[in-house]
Amino acid sequence: MLVCNTRKALHNAIDESLQGQKSIGFVPTMGALHEGHLELMRRAKSENDLLAVSIFVNPIQFNNREDYDKYPRVAETDRQLLESVGCDILFSPDEHEMYPEPVKERYHFGALETVMEGAFRPGHFNGVAVVVKRLFELVRPTKAYFGEKDYQQLAIIKALVEGYHLPVQIVPCPTVREADGLAMSSRNMRLSPNERAIAPKIYKALSKAASLRNVLSPEEMRIWALNELYKTPEFHPEYVEVADASNLQPLQHWNDAASARIFTAVHLGPVRLIDNVPIF
Ligand code: AMP
After folding, report:
1. 222 vs 210: CA distance, rounded Å
2. Residue 253 falls in the annotated catalytic set
3. What is the pTM of this model?
4. How far is the CA of 147 from the centre of ligand 1 (A)?
5. pLDDT tens-digit profile of 72-82?
6. N or C: which end of the chain has fewer CB within 10 A?
Protein backbone atom coordinates (compact mmCIF):
# COMPACT_ATOMS: atom_id res chain seq x y z
CA MET A 1 0.00 0.00 0.00
CA LEU A 2 1.33 3.38 -1.02
CA VAL A 3 0.75 5.97 1.72
CA CYS A 4 0.50 9.60 0.60
CA ASN A 5 0.36 12.40 3.15
CA THR A 6 0.64 15.26 0.67
CA ARG A 7 -1.49 16.29 -2.28
CA LYS A 8 1.63 16.32 -4.47
CA ALA A 9 2.53 12.71 -3.63
CA LEU A 10 -1.05 11.63 -4.22
CA HIS A 11 -1.24 13.53 -7.51
CA ASN A 12 1.89 11.77 -8.78
CA ALA A 13 0.60 8.35 -7.71
CA ILE A 14 -2.73 8.93 -9.42
CA ASP A 15 -1.06 10.28 -12.61
CA GLU A 16 0.93 7.09 -12.83
CA SER A 17 -2.13 4.89 -12.29
CA LEU A 18 -4.19 6.74 -14.89
CA GLN A 19 -1.38 6.55 -17.44
CA GLY A 20 -1.51 2.81 -16.92
CA GLN A 21 -5.25 3.07 -17.77
CA LYS A 22 -6.21 1.76 -14.35
CA SER A 23 -9.72 2.29 -13.03
CA ILE A 24 -9.77 3.65 -9.48
CA GLY A 25 -12.39 2.78 -6.85
CA PHE A 26 -12.39 5.36 -4.06
CA VAL A 27 -13.69 5.22 -0.48
CA PRO A 28 -13.43 8.48 1.47
CA THR A 29 -13.49 7.99 5.28
CA MET A 30 -12.67 9.65 8.56
CA GLY A 31 -10.85 6.55 9.83
CA ALA A 32 -11.53 4.43 12.94
CA LEU A 33 -12.42 1.82 10.36
CA HIS A 34 -15.01 -0.87 10.95
CA GLU A 35 -16.72 -3.57 8.92
CA GLY A 36 -19.06 -0.97 7.33
CA HIS A 37 -16.07 0.82 5.80
CA LEU A 38 -14.38 -2.46 4.88
CA GLU A 39 -17.46 -3.65 2.95
CA LEU A 40 -17.33 -0.50 0.81
CA MET A 41 -13.62 -1.13 0.22
CA ARG A 42 -14.03 -4.79 -0.73
CA ARG A 43 -16.67 -3.80 -3.24
CA ALA A 44 -14.52 -0.96 -4.63
CA LYS A 45 -11.55 -3.32 -4.93
CA SER A 46 -13.62 -5.96 -6.75
CA GLU A 47 -15.10 -3.48 -9.26
CA ASN A 48 -11.91 -1.55 -10.12
CA ASP A 49 -8.22 -2.10 -10.87
CA LEU A 50 -7.11 -0.09 -7.83
CA LEU A 51 -8.54 0.77 -4.42
CA ALA A 52 -7.85 4.26 -3.06
CA VAL A 53 -8.95 5.26 0.44
CA SER A 54 -8.71 8.58 2.22
CA ILE A 55 -8.59 9.03 5.97
CA PHE A 56 -9.18 12.61 7.03
CA VAL A 57 -11.16 13.80 10.05
CA ASN A 58 -12.60 16.81 8.29
CA PRO A 59 -12.80 19.69 10.79
CA ILE A 60 -15.17 21.82 8.69
CA GLN A 61 -17.96 19.23 8.72
CA PHE A 62 -18.14 19.15 12.53
CA ASN A 63 -20.46 21.66 14.11
CA ASN A 64 -19.56 20.45 17.60
CA ARG A 65 -15.98 21.01 18.77
CA GLU A 66 -16.09 18.19 21.34
CA ASP A 67 -17.32 15.71 18.71
CA TYR A 68 -14.31 16.68 16.56
CA ASP A 69 -11.79 16.53 19.42
CA LYS A 70 -13.05 13.18 20.67
CA TYR A 71 -13.51 11.58 17.24
CA PRO A 72 -11.54 8.28 17.44
CA ARG A 73 -8.15 8.34 15.70
CA VAL A 74 -6.43 4.94 15.44
CA ALA A 75 -3.99 5.27 12.53
CA GLU A 76 -2.00 2.07 13.07
CA THR A 77 -5.05 -0.23 13.40
CA ASP A 78 -6.58 1.44 10.35
CA ARG A 79 -3.43 0.80 8.34
CA GLN A 80 -3.54 -2.91 9.14
CA LEU A 81 -7.21 -3.13 8.17
CA LEU A 82 -6.48 -1.32 4.89
CA GLU A 83 -3.70 -3.83 4.12
CA SER A 84 -6.16 -6.67 4.84
CA VAL A 85 -8.58 -5.48 2.14
CA GLY A 86 -5.82 -4.85 -0.39
CA CYS A 87 -5.88 -1.05 -0.38
CA ASP A 88 -3.46 0.24 -3.03
CA ILE A 89 -3.30 3.95 -2.20
CA LEU A 90 -4.00 5.60 1.16
CA PHE A 91 -4.30 9.37 1.24
CA SER A 92 -4.07 10.71 4.77
CA PRO A 93 -3.36 14.43 4.76
CA ASP A 94 -3.25 16.74 7.77
CA GLU A 95 -5.53 19.74 8.08
CA HIS A 96 -3.05 22.23 6.61
CA GLU A 97 -2.43 19.99 3.60
CA MET A 98 -6.16 19.80 2.87
CA TYR A 99 -6.92 23.44 3.72
CA PRO A 100 -3.83 25.60 3.16
CA GLU A 101 -6.13 28.66 2.83
CA PRO A 102 -9.32 29.47 4.74
CA VAL A 103 -12.27 27.73 3.09
CA LYS A 104 -14.62 30.12 1.30
CA GLU A 105 -16.63 27.84 -0.98
CA ARG A 106 -20.36 27.67 -0.39
CA TYR A 107 -22.45 24.95 -1.98
CA HIS A 108 -26.23 25.00 -2.14
CA PHE A 109 -28.40 21.91 -2.17
CA GLY A 110 -31.86 23.46 -1.92
CA ALA A 111 -34.49 21.45 -0.06
CA LEU A 112 -32.07 18.52 0.38
CA GLU A 113 -30.13 20.45 3.01
CA THR A 114 -33.02 22.04 4.89
CA VAL A 115 -34.20 18.78 6.49
CA MET A 116 -32.82 16.36 9.11
CA GLU A 117 -29.00 16.52 9.32
CA GLY A 118 -28.99 19.73 7.27
CA ALA A 119 -31.41 21.40 9.69
CA PHE A 120 -29.77 20.14 12.90
CA ARG A 121 -26.11 20.47 11.87
CA PRO A 122 -25.71 23.87 10.20
CA GLY A 123 -22.74 23.95 7.82
CA HIS A 124 -22.24 20.18 8.00
CA PHE A 125 -23.08 19.38 4.38
CA ASN A 126 -21.12 22.34 3.06
CA GLY A 127 -18.10 20.91 4.89
CA VAL A 128 -18.80 17.48 3.41
CA ALA A 129 -19.21 18.90 -0.12
CA VAL A 130 -15.98 20.93 0.11
CA VAL A 131 -13.87 17.97 1.19
CA VAL A 132 -15.45 15.41 -1.14
CA LYS A 133 -15.13 17.69 -4.20
CA ARG A 134 -11.45 18.32 -3.39
CA LEU A 135 -10.85 14.60 -2.83
CA PHE A 136 -12.52 13.73 -6.13
CA GLU A 137 -10.35 16.27 -7.94
CA LEU A 138 -7.22 14.79 -6.40
CA VAL A 139 -8.03 11.06 -6.62
CA ARG A 140 -9.91 11.26 -9.96
CA PRO A 141 -11.81 8.02 -9.21
CA THR A 142 -13.80 6.02 -11.73
CA LYS A 143 -16.30 5.08 -9.01
CA ALA A 144 -16.73 6.31 -5.43
CA TYR A 145 -18.51 4.29 -2.73
CA PHE A 146 -20.76 5.72 -0.02
CA GLY A 147 -22.83 4.06 2.71
CA GLU A 148 -26.61 4.30 3.02
CA LYS A 149 -26.01 4.67 6.76
CA ASP A 150 -25.45 8.35 5.89
CA TYR A 151 -28.34 8.42 3.45
CA GLN A 152 -28.74 12.18 3.30
CA GLN A 153 -25.00 12.59 2.71
CA LEU A 154 -25.29 10.16 -0.18
CA ALA A 155 -28.09 12.30 -1.68
CA ILE A 156 -25.97 15.44 -1.24
CA ILE A 157 -22.96 13.80 -2.96
CA LYS A 158 -25.14 12.66 -5.88
CA ALA A 159 -26.42 16.25 -6.23
CA LEU A 160 -22.84 17.59 -6.08
CA VAL A 161 -21.69 15.21 -8.81
CA GLU A 162 -24.69 16.06 -10.99
CA GLY A 163 -24.51 19.82 -10.39
CA TYR A 164 -20.80 20.09 -11.20
CA HIS A 165 -20.72 17.34 -13.84
CA LEU A 166 -17.99 15.54 -11.91
CA PRO A 167 -16.70 12.54 -13.90
CA VAL A 168 -17.28 9.89 -11.24
CA GLN A 169 -19.94 7.24 -10.69
CA ILE A 170 -21.42 7.18 -7.19
CA VAL A 171 -22.11 3.69 -5.83
CA PRO A 172 -24.50 3.46 -2.85
CA CYS A 173 -23.82 0.58 -0.43
CA PRO A 174 -26.21 -0.91 2.17
CA THR A 175 -25.75 -0.21 5.88
CA VAL A 176 -23.64 -2.81 7.67
CA ARG A 177 -24.97 -3.67 11.15
CA GLU A 178 -23.73 -5.44 14.26
CA ALA A 179 -25.40 -8.81 14.96
CA ASP A 180 -27.87 -7.04 17.28
CA GLY A 181 -28.89 -4.55 14.59
CA LEU A 182 -26.90 -1.48 15.67
CA ALA A 183 -25.59 0.35 12.60
CA MET A 184 -21.79 0.22 12.66
CA SER A 185 -20.24 3.61 13.35
CA SER A 186 -16.84 4.87 14.46
CA ARG A 187 -18.67 6.73 17.22
CA ASN A 188 -19.99 3.46 18.75
CA MET A 189 -16.54 3.06 20.39
CA ARG A 190 -17.40 5.97 22.67
CA LEU A 191 -20.49 4.29 24.14
CA SER A 192 -20.29 2.84 27.69
CA PRO A 193 -21.14 -0.89 28.03
CA ASN A 194 -24.65 0.02 29.19
CA GLU A 195 -25.17 2.50 26.34
CA ARG A 196 -23.84 -0.05 23.85
CA ALA A 197 -26.30 -2.62 25.20
CA ILE A 198 -29.35 -0.40 24.64
CA ALA A 199 -28.22 1.30 21.39
CA PRO A 200 -29.73 -1.44 19.13
CA LYS A 201 -33.17 -0.26 20.26
CA ILE A 202 -32.79 2.59 17.78
CA TYR A 203 -32.77 0.17 14.86
CA LYS A 204 -35.51 -1.92 16.46
CA ALA A 205 -37.77 1.14 16.80
CA LEU A 206 -37.19 2.13 13.16
CA SER A 207 -37.72 -1.35 11.74
CA LYS A 208 -40.83 -2.01 13.83
CA ALA A 209 -42.24 1.37 12.75
CA ALA A 210 -41.47 0.61 9.09
CA SER A 211 -43.33 -2.70 9.37
CA LEU A 212 -46.52 -0.80 10.33
CA ARG A 213 -46.80 0.83 6.92
CA ASN A 214 -50.16 -0.78 6.17
CA VAL A 215 -51.82 0.48 9.35
CA LEU A 216 -50.25 3.92 9.90
CA SER A 217 -50.01 7.10 7.85
CA PRO A 218 -46.50 8.55 7.41
CA GLU A 219 -47.09 11.08 10.21
CA GLU A 220 -48.53 8.40 12.52
CA MET A 221 -45.48 6.24 11.83
CA ARG A 222 -43.17 9.15 12.67
CA ILE A 223 -44.94 9.72 16.00
CA TRP A 224 -45.04 5.97 16.73
CA ALA A 225 -41.25 5.67 16.30
CA LEU A 226 -40.61 8.81 18.35
CA ASN A 227 -42.74 7.45 21.22
CA GLU A 228 -40.94 4.12 20.98
CA LEU A 229 -37.58 5.90 21.32
CA TYR A 230 -38.84 7.94 24.28
CA LYS A 231 -39.50 4.68 26.14
CA THR A 232 -35.72 4.39 26.66
CA PRO A 233 -34.88 7.23 29.06
CA GLU A 234 -31.21 7.33 27.97
CA PHE A 235 -32.29 8.20 24.40
CA HIS A 236 -32.67 11.85 23.48
CA PRO A 237 -34.08 11.83 19.94
CA GLU A 238 -33.37 14.93 17.88
CA TYR A 239 -35.77 14.06 15.09
CA VAL A 240 -37.64 11.22 13.44
CA GLU A 241 -38.67 11.75 9.82
CA VAL A 242 -40.59 9.66 7.34
CA ALA A 243 -39.44 10.89 3.96
CA ASP A 244 -39.51 10.32 0.23
CA ALA A 245 -36.29 8.37 -0.40
CA SER A 246 -35.46 10.35 -3.54
CA ASN A 247 -35.83 13.99 -2.37
CA LEU A 248 -35.83 13.39 1.43
CA GLN A 249 -38.85 15.62 1.96
CA PRO A 250 -41.35 14.64 4.68
CA LEU A 251 -44.05 12.43 3.25
CA GLN A 252 -47.77 13.21 3.62
CA HIS A 253 -49.25 10.17 1.84
CA TRP A 254 -47.66 6.85 0.96
CA ASN A 255 -48.83 7.22 -2.65
CA ASP A 256 -46.75 10.39 -3.05
CA ALA A 257 -43.44 8.48 -3.21
CA ALA A 258 -42.02 5.56 -5.18
CA SER A 259 -39.94 4.63 -2.15
CA ALA A 260 -39.79 5.91 1.42
CA ARG A 261 -37.46 5.65 4.43
CA ILE A 262 -37.63 6.43 8.11
CA PHE A 263 -34.71 8.38 9.62
CA THR A 264 -33.59 9.35 13.11
CA ALA A 265 -30.83 11.05 15.08
CA VAL A 266 -30.57 10.13 18.76
CA HIS A 267 -28.24 11.44 21.46
CA LEU A 268 -27.05 8.61 23.69
CA GLY A 269 -24.49 9.44 26.38
CA PRO A 270 -21.61 11.34 24.75
CA VAL A 271 -22.56 10.58 21.15
CA ARG A 272 -25.15 11.35 18.55
CA LEU A 273 -26.17 8.31 16.50
CA ILE A 274 -28.02 8.36 13.18
CA ASP A 275 -29.80 5.53 11.41
CA ASN A 276 -32.40 4.97 8.71
CA VAL A 277 -34.25 2.01 7.20
CA PRO A 278 -36.29 1.51 4.05
CA ILE A 279 -40.10 1.41 4.40
CA PHE A 280 -40.72 0.41 0.79
P1 AMP B 1 -17.17 7.97 7.88
O2 AMP B 1 -15.78 7.48 8.15
O3 AMP B 1 -18.09 7.78 9.03
O4 AMP B 1 -17.17 9.36 7.31
O5 AMP B 1 -17.76 7.03 6.75
C6 AMP B 1 -17.10 6.82 5.53
C7 AMP B 1 -18.02 6.09 4.59
O8 AMP B 1 -18.40 4.84 5.16
C9 AMP B 1 -19.34 6.85 4.32
O10 AMP B 1 -19.70 6.67 2.96
C11 AMP B 1 -20.30 6.17 5.25
O12 AMP B 1 -21.65 6.26 4.82
C13 AMP B 1 -19.81 4.74 5.17
N14 AMP B 1 -20.26 3.99 6.35
C15 AMP B 1 -20.08 4.32 7.65
N16 AMP B 1 -20.70 3.42 8.46
C17 AMP B 1 -21.29 2.50 7.63
C18 AMP B 1 -22.08 1.33 7.83
N19 AMP B 1 -22.40 0.92 9.05
N20 AMP B 1 -22.50 0.67 6.75
C21 AMP B 1 -22.21 1.09 5.50
N22 AMP B 1 -21.45 2.17 5.23
C23 AMP B 1 -21.00 2.88 6.29
Report:
1. 9
2. no
3. 0.98
4. 5
5. 999 999 999 99
6. C
